[in-house]
Specification:
This protein is of the alpha/beta class. Helix content is 49%, strand content 12%. The strands form two sheets. A four-stranded parallel beta sheet has the order 2-1-5-6. Helix 8 links the parallel strand 5 and strand 6. The longest helix has 15 residues. The termini are close together.
C-alpha cells in the first residue's frame, strides 16, 4: 500500500489491528506491526490504548525487538555464537570501539566512518566475539541464520502469526526483508501488508531498500494487491 505524508499510515495499521482483534477475539494468533522506530511503535500502542484495545494477540515494535523477542531469546541455544551467552552493545559503544581500533592501527578516519575500513571492521568483529557481544546488525544476522539453519524455529514462529504489517517499508533493509520472508514462506496463510512511500525513503544510506511490488512478490512467493 502506497501512502504519502499525512495520509494516515499509522491510523490505517492501528485500525486494522483493532479490526483483527475484534474479528478473532478468542484467537491467540499474533497480529504484528513492525515499525522503523521505537517512537512509531509507542504511537501505535498509545492509539490502541485510546481505543480501549489491550490484547496479547497484538504486538508492535521494531524489527530488532521482534527478533530478540521471538527468535534470539527463545532460541539462542541453537546458535554457535550465542549459546554461551551474549550481551548487546549500542551504537555509541560500537563507535567507541571503532575510534579505539582506528587509533591503535594508526588509521585516519573522517566523519566517524570507521567500519568502511576493512581492517577496522575485521578487528571490531574479532573483539565482539571475544567479548561475547553483538550489535544491532548482528541481531538481524543471527536471527536470519537461525531461521535458515533450524527449520523448526521458523515453523514455530510462523504457526503463531496471523498478520504482519511492515510500516515505512521503503526504509526496510535486505536482512529485514529476508527475515520476514523466511517466516511467511513457512506459512502462506500469513497476511502481509507493506505500507509506505518510495518517495519518503530517508535511510537508503543505512541500507534501506524500497523494493518494487514485483520484487516483493518474487521474494515472498505471494500475490499482492497494490493500492
Amino acid at each position: 500500500m502506497t501512502a504519502c505524508p499525512g495520509s494516515g499510515k499509522t491510523r490505517t495499521i492501528v485500525h486494522r489491528l483493532g479490526y483483527l482483534h475484534a474479528k478473532y477475539p478468542e484467537s491467540r494468533k499474533l497480529n504484528i506491526a513492525i515499525t522503523f522506530t521505537n517512537r512509531a511503535a509507542d504511537e501505535m500502542e498509545n492509539r490502541l490504548n485510546d481505543m480501549g484495545i489491550e490484547s496479547d494477540s497484538i504486538w508492535t515494535g521494531t524489527i530488532h525487538q521482534f527478533c530478540m523477542k521471538y527468535i534470539i531469546r527463545p532460541y539462542a541455544m541453537y546458535s554457535s555464537r550465542l549459546k554461551r551467552g551474549y550481551h548487546i552493545i549500542d551504537e555509541y559503544r560500537k563507535n567507541e570501539y571503532g575510534k579505539q581500533i582506528a587509533k591503535e592501527l594508526h588509521i585516519q578516519i573522517q566523519y566517524q566512518k570507521y567500519f568502511d575500513n576493512i581492517h577496522i571492521l575485521r578487528k571490531y568483529e574479532q573483539i565482539k566475539r571475544e567479548n561475547k557481544e553483538i550489535d544491532f546488525d548482528d541481531i538481524l544476522l543471527e536471527s536470519l541464520g537461525l531461521l535458515k539453519d533450524c527449520s523448526f524455529i521458523t515453523e514455530n514462529i510462523a504457526a503463531i502469526i496471523r498478520c504482519i504489517h511492515i510500516d515505512e517499508y521503503q526504509d526496510t533493509n535486505e536482512l529485514q526483508y529476508q527475515i520476514i520472508a523466511q517466516i511467511v514462506l513457512k506459512n502462506k496463510a500469513i497476511n502481509v501488508l507493506f505500507i509506505g512511500d518510495v518517495n519518503q525513503a530517508i535511510y537508503d544510506n543505512l541500507g534501506g531498500i524500497a523494493k518494487t511490488p514485483e520484487e516483493i512478490r518474487n521474494l515472498y512467493n505471494l500475490s499482492f494487491k497494490e493500492s
